[in-house]
Each structure stands twice: as structure tokens, then as C-alpha cells.
Amino acid sequence: MRRRVAYVLPVYDEGRTLQAFHAALLAATAQRPDLDFEFLYVDDGSRDDSLEQLLALRAADDRVAVLALSRNFGHQVALTAGLDAAGDADAVVVMDTDLQDPPRVSLELIALWETGVDVAYAQRRTRQDTWFKRTTASLFYRLLARLADVEIPREVGDFRLMDARVVAEVGRYREHGRFLRGIVAHVGFRQEAVLFDRDERHAGASGYDLRTMLSFASHGLLGFSTAPLRMISKLGFAISAISVLLAVYVFSVRVFTPEQAVPGWAFLGVGMFLLSGLQLIMMGVIGSYLGRVYVETQDRPLYSLALAARGRRSAPGTRD
Ligand code: UDP
Ligand code: MG
Fold first, then answer.
1. Could you tell me the distance, in angstroms and rounded to a whole number, from the CA of residue 125 to the centre of ligand 2?
2. Is 317 a domain residue?
3. Could you tell me which residue, 8 or 208, shows the higher pLDDT?
4. 9 and 145 belong to one structural domain
5. Which residue from 22, 98, 201, 213 has its CB within 8 A of the most atoms of ligand 1, so it is best to mutate?
6. Can you give the CATH number for the domain in which 156 is found?
């Protein structure tokens, strides 16, 4: 049976790039006539003529599908809408439509998938972004690697191929502050990288300004780590420890050089450190409950099964 590969392609004000992108995509996928393709464009409330162009592409080629969100919901939500709609494809490729992710690399992702890998992600060997974007991104990925509970690969964006069973699992994660590359890492299965050189943006400007980049980074950190909450009580313990040291110091001054002791100072100094330390410890206690409430409200699946090979009679109530 012919295998079906769907491309999920988010579009936000890419009118100046779309034709070039679609041509490159067609040229790449033409090299695999043995596969059935679907090109699922998700228009994320574009303000330019992107949607009209997409509908024209759709009229010319029925492998093109178009979804239009009712307003700009952001890249991550647009991807999610596309994954939800990708339905019965055997694999889904997710990539940007500004030609920063070269369509020919998706062929390598497909080839890796055909060797039995469930998630083939495209890892940037080099990238052509501005100095500022490269440094902030690299700092962010370093911090994330230290703090996150799952291992999220570095220098990897959303450009990846996912097997149908991974797409199904990712679809069970419905949190609002979305960090899709973290969710895919959380899901598990066999994940491997293909290295590529990331191109420059073909035309137009990045849809991520500093504000959306910061909020995206905080979704990544807060969504996959409760370490910031745990830092509160660590700080509290450190400050309480200072109050103990201070008390020792005050005591020795009183015993060994009583003529230098200033009345009242000990009580204020030690008390200040002790109380603020205790307060932070208690806030940390509240924080750890809050962290649990937070994780519970994310309501993620407890686990994902890669295989269930069971005995013939192990499922009660089923007959074969
Ligand atoms: N995009 C989107 N919604 C947005 C911003 C961007 O669907 O609100 C799309 C955009 O069209 C592109 C991809 O997401 O295909 C990546 O966006 P962008 O190039 O702006 O991000 P960058 O490459 O700068 O990280
Ligand atoms: Mg881009």
C-alpha cells in the first residue's frame, strides 16, 4: 500500500515567499513518486494576500489543503491545528514556509523515518539569523537543557517528521502555553536527528518579535520545569544559614571582646536574616504545592505506549 505523508505548513504574512516555497516543495516531493503527499497549509490570520494565494494553489492541485484560523493565534497553535487535521497520514512533516527550512531536507527526514525512526528532527548545523537571535537562542537552549525534566534537543526548531503514532500522542497534550518541541520530546519513542544548514529568511520579517520570543521561552521553561519554584526554598535555606553564622559571630564577640559589643544589634541583625529566610522557606513550601497543582492542571497523558504485545486471553471480555 502507498504510504501517505502530510506536510503541516503554518503561514503568517508570507505572501512574498509562498510561490517560491511551494515550488521548492513540489520540486523536492517530486523525487518520491512512490509516496502520496498532502500539503496542509494553515493560515494563521495573515493580513496580506497569503490566504488568496493558498486558495489559488488549492484550486490548481488537490493535494493542497487549506485551513484558515479566525485570527492570528501564533505559530505553535497554528501547528497544533494542522496536526489535528493531518488525521490519517502515516507521517507528518512540520516545517516553516519562509524557506528557512529547506524542503529538500524533508526528503532526508522521510528516509530516516523509513528506517524505523519515529521522530526525525532537523538539527541546525549552522543558521543565518541575526547575531542577537543566535545568542539569545543558544543561551535559552542551554538554560532549558539544565532545567527541563525531559531532554529537549538543542538547535532544533519545529522542523521535524513525526510518525502517525507520535502525532496521535502529541494530540493528547492540550496545554494552552504550548511549546511543541518540548511536548514531542516528552512523548518519547525513537527520535533521531538529521543535520542541516538553516537558510536565511526568503523575504519579509520574522513573525516572532522580542515579546513573543520571551513568552515562547517562558512557556518552554515553565512548561517543562518546576525548578524556579524550588529555587525559592533553596534561597530561604541559604539566608537562614547566614543568620546562624551571624549568631555565632555575635556570640563570640560578646564572649571574647565584650568591650566592642553594641547592644541591640545582634537581635536586629540575626532576626532579620532568620525571619526572611523562614519566610522564603515557607513560600517555597507553598511553591511546591503550587507546582503540583500546576502539573496536575496541565493534565498531560501519564504515559504513551510504544507496543502492547499481550497474551491471547489477557484482555477480558474480548473474543477472537
Ligand atoms: N508563523 C505563524 N504564526 C505567527 C508567526 C509565524 O504561523 O504568528 C509562521 C510563519 O509563517 C513561518 C513560521 O511560523 O512559516 C515561523 O515563523 P518565523 O519565520 O516568523 O519565525 P523564526 O524563523 O523567526 O523563528
Ligand atoms: Mg523564519
1. 16
2. no
3. 8
4. yes
5. 98
6. 3.90.550.10
Residues 172, 26 within the same domain: yes
Residue 318 resides in a domain:
no
Residue 233 sits in the same domain as residue 188: no
Query: Do 260 and 119 sit in the same domain of this protein?
Result: no
* pLDDT tier for residue 20 given thresholds of 50, 70 and 90: very high
In a domain, 220, yes or no: no
What distance in angstroms lies between residue 315's CA and the mean position of ligand 2's atoms?
A: 49
What is the span of the domain harbouring residue 194? 4-210+302-309
Cβ < 6 A, ligand 1 pocket: 10-12, 14, 44, 72, 74-75, 78, 96-98, 100, 206-208
**154 and 15, same structural domain?**
yes
**pLDDT tens readout for residues 32-57:** 999 999 999 999 999 999 999 999 99
Angle in degrees, CA 225, 172, 79, rounded to 5: 85
Number of domains observed in the structure of the chain: 2
ipTM of the complex: 0.95
- The pLDDT, as a whole number, for residue 315 is 57
